[in-house]
Design a protein that fits this description.
Chain A is of the alpha/beta class. Chain A contains 13 helices and 15 strands. In chain B, the strands form two sheets. Chain B has a two-stranded antiparallel sheet. In chain B, strands 2-3 form a two-stranded antiparallel sheet. Classes of the chains: A alpha/beta, B alpha+beta. Chains A and B meet through α9 of A and loops of B. The structure holds iron/sulfur cluster (2 copies).
C-alpha cells in the first residue's frame, strides 16, 4: 500500500464501508439487516436520517429478495444503487442476482462474508459469495476495511462503464473485517466526486420513451445475450487495473488491481488466497523467510472476472502452489480457488503441483501457526516430489 | 441485426412476433347464443378479443394463444375450443 494522504480515524469496518458508499452518492439504497452485515445498513440508515445522503431514497424491505428486486427496478431507471447482505440473505437473492446481471444493471453490493446453514453459523467464511460464482456478477475480495471502503467507488466506476454494465459484489470477511475497529482513511467526498463520474446509462426506463428490460429471448438469440455478458466481463478485466491506478492517483492508496503480489519474485512456495487471511499470510511469509524458506503470496482481488493471464504470469516460476480456501465444493473436497488455479495452469506447459487447503470455515480462527504448518508441509512435499490432494488444514479428526 | 445488451427492446416487437402460432386449440364463436355481455373481452389475458361492428366479439388470431379462458368463462357456452389444424 502506498503512502496515505488522508488523516486516519479509528472506526469499525462497517462504518468505513457505509461512509465510502455515502461519498458515492447513491440514489437508492435497499437493504435488509442480516448478521454480520447489519452495521453497514444501520450506518447508512443513520446517514439518511441525518440528511447526509442528499436525495437518496433508503427503502426498507421485508427480505433480501425484495431488496435486490427493488434495486433492479431502481437501477433500470438510471439510479445509482447500493445494497449489502450476507450468507442466507445472499442465497435468498440468488434468482434476482441473475436478473440484475442479465439486464446489465450495475448495482454495487457489499457482501459481509458468512457461512451458510445448516448447521447454523453466523461466523465468517466465503461459502456465500463463492456459491454465487456463476450469477454473472463481478466479485472483488478485500483484505481489510480500508480496501473494502476503497473498492466501493472503484466498483461503481468499473460496473457503470458503458462497456461493462455488470453488477459488482465487494466481498469482505464478516466480523473479522466488518466488526474490527482499526485506523482507516475515510473517503473524502470531493475526491470521490473527482474520481467517480455520475451514472449515465445508455438505456433507462422512461415512460416517455418506453423500453422493456430483460425481454423474452427464444433459443435463436439466448446464447448471444449470455455471450454479451461474457464480453462485459472481459471489458471489466481490462478496466480493473487502470481504475485501481486512477484511484491511486487521486487518493494515494493502492492494493493491486486484478491481483496483488507479496514477495513473489523469487518465491518457490506460492500461497494463493483472498480476503482477510492475506494479512496473516504476509506476516508468516516474513517469518519463514528469515529461516530461509522462499515463500511468497498471490492475492486474488478479482475472482470474477478471473484474471487468467495475470495468474499464469504470476505463477510461472513457482515450485509449488498452495491455495487457501474459506469454502468447499462438497463432493469434490476442494475449494474454489484450488479448482480455478489448477484449471488456469492446465493448458500451459507448467506442471507445478497445486495443493489445496481449506480452513477457517464457520468462523474458525486462522492463526499464523497453521499457515506455517502448511508452508512446512509444502516445503517437504516439494523436496520429496509428493503429491498432496486437497484437504482441510484445521479439521479436528477426533470429532468425526 | 444487432442485439442490445440486457435484452432491452423498444415497444411493439410483437407486431413482428405473431404469438398466435403457439396455439393448439382455437376458440370459435357460435354467435346465436351470445348475449354480448363482454366477459370474453374482459377476461382474455392477451387482450386479443375486441367488440366488432354488430356488438359481437371477435378474436385476433394472430395473438390468441388458445388458453381457453374465454370459452371457460363465457356464461352462455358461445365459445367452443376446437383443435387447431394447419
Ligand atoms: S383462447 Fe385465451 S387468448 Fe384466445 S381469445 Fe380466448 S382468452 Fe383470449
Ligand atoms: S362471454 Fe360469451 S356471451 Fe359474453 S360476449 Fe363473450 S361470447 Fe358473448
Amino acid at each position: 500500500m502506498s503512502e496515505l494522504k488522508a488523516e486516519l480515524k479509528v472506526v469499525e469496518g462497517s462504518y468505513a464501508v457505509a461512509h465510502a458508499v455515502k461519498t458515492c452518492h447513491p440514489d437508492v439504497i435497499a437493504a435488509y439487516p442480516i448478521t454480520p452485515q447489519t452495521h453497514i445498513a444501520e450506518n447508512l440508515s443513520q446517514f439518511n436520517a441525518d440528511g447526509e445522503l442528499g436525495n437518496c431514497e433508503y427503502i426498507t424491505v421485508e427480505s433480501e429478495f425484495s431488496a435486490l428486486s427493488t434495486l433492479i427496478g431502481a437501477s433500470a431507471t438510471g439510479a445509482r444503487t447500493y445494497a449489502s447482505t450476507a450468507s442466507q440473505g445472499l442465497a435468498l437473492m440468488h434468482e434476482a442476482l441473475f436478473n440484475a446481471a442479465g439486464m446489465r444493471l450495475p448495482i454495487v453490493m457489499t457482501v459481509a462474508n458468512r457461512a451458510l446453514s445448516a448447521p447454523l453459523s453466523i461466523w465468517n467464511d466465503q461459502q456465500d459469495s463463492i456459491a454465487q460464482r456463476d450469477v454473472g456478477w463481478i466479485q472483488l475480495y478485500a483484505e481489510d476495511p480500508q480496501e473494502a471502503a476503497d473498492m466501493t467507488p472503484q466498483a461503481y466506476k468499473i460496473s457503470e462503464d458503458r462497456d461493462v454494465m455488470t453488477p459488482a459484489m465487494i466481498c469482505f470477511d464478516g466480523f473479522i473485517l466488518t466488526h474490527v475497529y482499526e485506523p482507516v482513511a475515510l473517503l473524502e467526498e470531493e475526491l470521490t466526486d473527482e474520481f467517480l463520474p455520475p451514472f449515465n446509462p445508455e438505456h433507462i426506463l422512461d415512460p416517455k420513451n418506453p423500453e422493456t428490460f430483460g425481454a423474452f429471448a427464444d433459443p435463436s438469440i439466448y446464447t448471444e445475450f449470455r455471450y454479451m455478458q461474457e464480453l462485459g466481463m472481459r471489458e471489466a478485466l481490462k478496466k480493473i487495473d487502470p481504475v485501481a491506478e486512477e484511484f491511486r492517483e487521486i487518493y494515494g492508496r493502492y492494493y493491486g488491481g486484478l491481483l496483488d503480489e507479496y514477495r513473489l519474485d523469487d518465491a518457490e512456495i506460492v500461497l494463493v488466497a483472498m480476503g482477510s487471511i492475506i494479512g496473516t499470510i504476509k506476516d508468516v511469509i516474513d517469518e519463514v523467510r528469515r529461516d530461509g524458506i522462499k515463500a511468497g503470496l498471490l492475492k486474488i482481488r478479482s475472482f470474477r472476472p478471473f484474471p487468467l493471464d495475470a495468474v499464469r504470469k504470476a505463477l510461472k516460476n513457482a515450485g509449488i502452489i498452495v491455495t487457501l480456501d474459506k469454502n468447499i465444493s462438497i463432493g469434490k473436497c476442494e475449494g474454489a480457488l484450488c479448482t480455478e488455479i489448477k484449471a488456469a495452469l492446465y493448458n500451459t506447459r507448467l506442471d507445478t503441483p497445486v495443493v489445496g487447503y481449506m480452513l477457517g470455515h464457520g468462523g474458525r480462527d486462522v492463526p499464523p501457526e497453521i499457515i506455517k504448518k502448511i508452508i512446512n508441509k509444502a516445503t517437504r512435499s516439494m523436496k520429496d516430489g509428493l503429491t498432496i490432494e486437497s484437504s482441510y488444514a484445521d479439521l479436528k479428526e477426533e470429532f468425526v | 441485426m444487432r442485439l442490445c445488451i440486457g435484452g432491452i427492446v423498444e415497444p411493439g416487437t410483437t407486431l413482428a412476433n405473431k404469438t398466435g402460432g403457439w396455439r393448439s386449440f382455437k376458440p370459435e364463436y357460435h354467435y346465436e347464443r351470445c348475449t354480448k355481455c363482454g366477459l370474453c373481452e374482459l377476461l382474455c389475458p392477451e387482450s386479443c378479443v375486441a367488440r366488432g361492428d354488430e356488438g359481437y366479439y371477435e378474436i385476433d388470431y394472430d395473438y390468441c394463444k388458445g388458453c381457453g379462458i374465454c370459452a371457460h368463462e363465457c356464461p352462455t357456452g358461445t365459445i367452443e375450443m376446437v383443435l387447431e389444424v394447419k
